[in-house]
Specification:
This protein is mostly helical. The chain has one domain. Helices cover 95% and strands 0% of the residues. It is built from two helices and no strands. Helix 1 packs antiparallel against helix 2.
């Protein structure tokens, strides 16, 4: 083999070795990227599941609260009806009915306010796991850039 042929063979072998090394590095990077992507998506799904659990639990709590409101309101209406049936004069009836209407309105406003506060808190709590994932995604993009 001539000196030029040996030199060409060495260049070819070096090129092939370099190519193999680069391909190996690229393959390892690809594996890591795939694994990182899998973990990222898995965490996203877990965050969605957590949001769903928080939502279900919150709706259940709001439902229990509304059942308690309904029981309390039924008791109030029952007591009001009993008082109204015991009234002796039309003036007292109208006055008592006005008192019950004001009390009923105040109760409705209070219960609606409590429900609104509960819903706002629930939506905030439900969104928190997804918000955390968005923060992770933002950090990933910042690092990649």
């Amino acid at each position: 083999m001539t000196k030029a042929a040996k030199k060409d063979t060495k260049k070819a072998n070096d090129f092939t070795a370099d190519l193999r090394e680069r391909a190996g590095v690229a393959m390892e990077k690809g594996k890591k990227l795939a694994a990182d992507g899998y973990e990222f998506q898995k965490a996203n799904v877990e965050a969605m599941i957590e949001s769903g659990k928080i939502g279900a639990q919150g709706v259940q709590e709001i439902g229990k609260t509304n059942v308690e409101f309904a029981k309390s309101n039924f008791g109030e209406v029952k007591a009001a009806a009993k008082e109204l049936t015991a009234v002796k004069s039309p003036t007292d009836f109208v006055k008592l009915q006005g008192d019950f209407a004001r009390k009923g309105f105040d109760t409705a406003v209070s219960q609606t306010s409590k429900n609104t506060e509960s819903l706002v808190k629930l939506f905030s709590d439900m969104f928190q796991p997804m918000s955390n994932r968005m923060a992770v995604a933002t950090d990933m993009f910042k690092k990649a850039a």
